Amino acid sequence: MQITAKMVSELRERTGAGMMDCKKALTEAGGDMDKAIEILREKGLAAAAKKAGRIAAEGLVETYISEDGKRGAVVELNCETDFVAKNADFAELAKNIAKQVAASNAATVEEILEEKFIADANLSVKEAITALIAKLGENMTLRRFERFTTENGVISDYIHGGGRIAVMVQLNGGNEAVSKEVAKELALQIAAANPLYLTREEVPQDVIEKEKEIYKQQALNEGKPEKVVEKMVEGRIQKYFKEVCLVEQLWIRDQDLTIKKLLENKSKEAGNDISIVKFARFEKGEGIEKKEDNFVEEVMKQAKM
């Protein structure tokens, strides 16, 4: 029997499952709508799709570095509750996805989701997530990832708070022993001090202008005369750079040293320059607005129906 677009659309409306999943189920069912719904339910796809509207703001951030140290990844896998975030199956899924990202060349989350799952070649990554959604009864989403690759450099990671903050940093130069030591220290620094940029040159001009405008208004609100406002703004911008740029931050272990000075000292110790290539810091759920259900509003809505 020919499976039409109308049939696929109807099944999608009735189950909330994805287009391709609906088409596969209809084909398998020989066009029988009820049988197709049953197939989707058996596979956990219909149940999973119905939960897709829930906001997944809990979860884990996870890292992986390959055995040869040449590839690494940091990922964020979200779920709805802290209870599921602590589930062993969820933690294992996050670890395997981090491993998958490190091994892959995919550029986007969508591309990763379509790949064959590293822990089960019979499933795609998307299907592996869907299967766990069906098993645990919560919506889950792979939100983001960052991949690190190096030939001769060092990649280091750090996870804080049981999967609340994950950091990865990549260095070039130095020698292996010193570079690994520095990379570990920098991972701790990044977790604690939350730099937004590596150097001040990376700070976008529009961000600088916005900060200047804020500082100018602050100074005027403090009643400072116009002639000293510009000097105050410049001073506060310099302070801003020291807060948000990694190399300008004070080292958390020794407040007499900046990270730039630490790198200079360790470069002398190693016999050649150590430089930071890049870093990533993922904090679980950052930027996601958690849905706050208002019971009174919900009752009022129901009453008006």
From TrEMBL:
Translation elongation factor EFTs/EF1B dimerisation domain: residues covered: 72-286
Listed GO CC annotations: cytoplasm
GO molecular function, one term: translation elongation factor activity
Keywords in alphabetical order: Cytoplasm, Elongation factor, Protein biosynthesis
Presence of the UniProt keyword Protein biosynthesis in the record: yes
UniProt subcellular location: Cytoplasm
CDD domains per record: UBA_EF-Ts (cd14275)
Keyword Lipid biosynthesis among record annotations: no
Pfam families hit by this protein: EF_TS (PF00889)
Annotated InterPro entries: EF-Ts_dimer_sf, Transl_elong_EFTs/EF1B, Transl_elong_EFTs/EF1B_dimer, Transl_elong_Ts_CS, UBA-like_sf
Positions of region (Involved in Mg(2+) ion dislocation from EF-Tu): 81-84
Function: Associates with the EF-Tu.GDP complex and induces the exchange of GDP to GTP. It remains bound to the aminoacyl-tRNA.EF-Tu.GTP complex up to the GTP hydrolysis stage on the ribosome.
Annotated family: Belongs to the EF-Ts family.
Protein name (record): Elongation factor Ts
Organism of this sequence: Caloramator mitchellensis
Phylogenetic lineage: Bacteria, Bacillati, Bacillota, Clostridia, Eubacteriales
